[in-house]
User: Fold these one by one.
Assistant:
Number 1:
Amino acid sequence: MSALTDEDKVYLQNSGYIFEEVGRCVILKGRKLPDGKFDNEFVDIMIELPARYPHTAPDMFYLLPWVKLAQVNRYPNAANVSKNFNGQNWQRWSRHNNEWRPGIDGIWTMLKRVEHALEIAS
């Protein structure tokens, strides 16, 4: 059974995302990072969907490979813990969401939060 809703899947497909579902996680393949910000240009992004999703907000996201801020050669704040998933150690980005609107928000909301976190990482 899919953790994504049908609406989420349509959104991802129509937006050109290459993704796969593994259990309760969706992995976005080969996503481009903001130019010059990190020491890698492309990553896979994993979002773990909670059991009550979409009524409950996804919390953190994860990157593979791990990235450091290019200018200072260090991990971004709250992004230096690993999570072993499916035989790989992912870089956890601890970003919490207290503004989730059940019935309104979906994977598109989480993706905007991920994009924002990557843009402002310090």
Number 2:
Amino acid sequence: MPKKANFSKDFLAKIKEQLLAKKEDLEQELKAISEPNPANKADYEATFPDLGDKPDENAAEVTEYTSNLTLEITLEKALKDVNEALKRFDEGGYGICKYCNEPINEKRLLARPVSSSCIECKKKLTLEV
């Protein structure tokens, strides 16, 4: 049975507030460069800019679209991490390492609220032992 973290209510409220603010920021950034995929609410599709019909404008459109596509992928991943952290909050498992079932250090959660693993397990996973 997974352990339960013994974080203070104030600490958890602070972290949840940060996560909700980050979620809102990410969604706004995504809306600026893409549109939600109607078939999958967790997916966005970069919009193709319309800068004109001249060759240099067409080249700028492709360049901007390529940049937006890369940014969209990065923002979607960050949003997915935030949503998963919020889900762990709702399910009562926030702050517990998904590998060793031990509480994650508060300093780590303050630095990276979406963390799902403790530093020791993360080091093992990235071969930093």
